[in-house]
Specification:
Shape: elongated
Number of domains: 1
Number of strands: 0
Strand content: under 5%
Structural class: mainly alpha
Helix content: over 70%
Distance between the termini: 16 Å
Order of helices and strands: HHHHHH
C-alpha cells in the first residue's frame, strides 16, 4: 500500500478531476459549435465511465491492497460522481448565467421549433404554455440543479455497472 487515503479522499480528488474533464468537454463542444442535443454529447458518458474506472482502480490497487468488494467499489464510484456532479452543476450555473446567457434563449427557440415540427396540431396557446413552463425550468440555477440530479442518477447507474467489473474480493482462504 503506497499511502493511506480514505475512500472519500480518493473519490474527492478523482471526482474533482472528472468534473473538470466534463467541464472542459462541455466547453469544447460549445466552442466548436456542437448543439446541446447532438449525439456527440454522449461522449460525456464515456468520460464518466473512464473517470469511474480510474477512480475505483486507484482505490483498489493503490490504497486497498488490490482488493475491493462490490460495495466498496460502488461507494467509491458514487462519491466520485457526486463530487463531479457538484463541479458540473456549478459550471452550468456560471456558464448559462455569465458566460453564455443567450444559450438558454437559443435552446428555447430550438424547443419551440421542434414542437411545431413534431406536433403540428398544437395550438399557439399550447405552444406558449409549454414554453412558459420550459422557461421556468431553464434558468441557470434550475439548469444547474437538474444537471446535478441528472449526472448523479446516470453516474450512480454507471457506477453500479462499472463496480461489477472492478471488484476484486479477497479469496476466502487467503492469508
Amino acid at each position: 500500500m503506497e499511502g493511506t487515503k480514505s475512500n472519500a479522499q480518493v473519490a474527492l480528488i478523482n471526482g474533482l478531476l472528472l468534473g473538470v474533464a466534463l467541464v472542459l468537454f462541455s466547453l469544447l463542444m460549445y466552442v466548436i459549435g456542437i448543439a446541446h442535443d447532438s449525439k456527440l454529447q454522449y461522449i460525456s458518458y464515456l468520460i464518466i465511465i473512464i473517470g469511474l474506472v480510474l477512480s475505483i482502480k486507484q482505490w483498489r490497487d493503490k490504497y486497498n491492497n488490490g482488493f475491493l468488494t462490490y460495495g466498496q467499489a460502488f461507494s467509491n464510484g458514487f462519491f466520485t460522481i457526486l463530487f463531479a456532479s457538484i463541479i458540473t452543476a456549478i459550471w452550468m450555473i456560471i456558464f448559462f448565467g455569465l458566460i453564455a446567457p443567450g444559450e438558454v434563449e437559443n435552446m428555447l427557440r430550438a424547443a419551440e421549433d421542434k414542437m411545431y415540427e413534431t406536433q403540428p396540431n398544437m395550438t399557439e396557446e399550447q405552444v406558449e404554455m409549454a414554453l412558459k413552463w420550459s422557461k421556468m425550468f431553464m434558468t441557470p440555477v434550475m439548469m444547474g440543479i437538474w444537471g446535478f440530479i441528472g449526472n448523479l442518477i446516470i453516474g450512480t447507474i454507471l457506477s453500479a455497472l462499472v463496480s461489477i467489473f472492478m471488484k476484486k474480493e479477497k479469496p476466502v482462504f487467503a492469508e
